[in-house]
Amino acid sequence: MQACRFQLHYPQPLLKYPPTAPPATKDGGLLFRRKLLYLQSLNINPHKALTINPSLCSTPLSSLLSVERSLCSVGLSRPSIGRILDMCPLLLTSDPLPPINFLLHEVPLPFPHLPLSLTRCPRLLISSVATQLRPTLHFLKSLGLVVNSHSTLLLVSNVEHTLKPKLNFLRYLGFDEPEVNRMVVRSPGLLTLSVENNMRPKVEFFLEETEGDLEELKRFPQYFSFSLEKKIKSRHRALVEHGFKLPLSKMLRVSDGEFNARVIEMQLQRVHKR
């Protein structure tokens, strides 16, 4: 009898497509948490950043990393980038390259000076080149001012409402336009001061208390940059008590120790003359 032979046919395993992951939400909880951790890694206050810039909620982490890379490429350290972004959270969803190119090619600012300018004034990075930075640069150049890393913060000022009132105040005092322009070139910080809270009180003290001459302000416009209460009044009082008088530059430019030594020296000279 011939044995029956059975041939077993094993079914081929069914090929299954890998399960398709459900489409990721625009900004799911996990992704949002990653963004918060990223902000914290830069020492950025997430609550402050989201309050000032609500669009951060829907901005992908890759965009934030791109902003960091752009800032890193101009020589800013990661701690500096964190400070800048914490001060100016709107930059997290902005393109910093147009203002950077403007600073490098139109101001123009030497590349090594760029980090200092951006650290001093992060608002440069979110200012419109066409409507803010370029018109203000043209105005400052018309005064004869050469913009450098210490004065680039003036580029974010409004020409009509911030810069011109200071120039008009100096003209009101009796300085003509060329004189005002020369004062600004010698002391660009004049354009950062408040007329009512800074310039006017100092002029009134200078004219009324010290009986000074406006010509001296023309020669030493840096007078406006010194504290009225902490330095100008106290040093003037010390000179008056001893019957002395000094030019503004010699009274204010030196340290407290040098000023006191100068007063003592003047006292000794008076004694020797007797």
TrEMBL record:
Among SMART domains, the record links this protein to: Mterf
Task: Please name the InterPro entries in this protein's record.
Answer: MTERF, MTERF_sf
Question: What species is this protein from?
Answer: Hibiscus syriacus
Identify the keywords attached in UniProt to this record, alphabetized: Transcription, Transcription regulation, Transcription termination, Transit peptide
GO molecular function list: nucleic acid binding
Q: Report the superkingdom from the record.
A: Eukaryota
Q: What is this protein called?
A: MYB105 protein
An example GO biological process term is: DNA-templated transcription termination
Q: Which family does it belong to?
A: Belongs to the mTERF family.
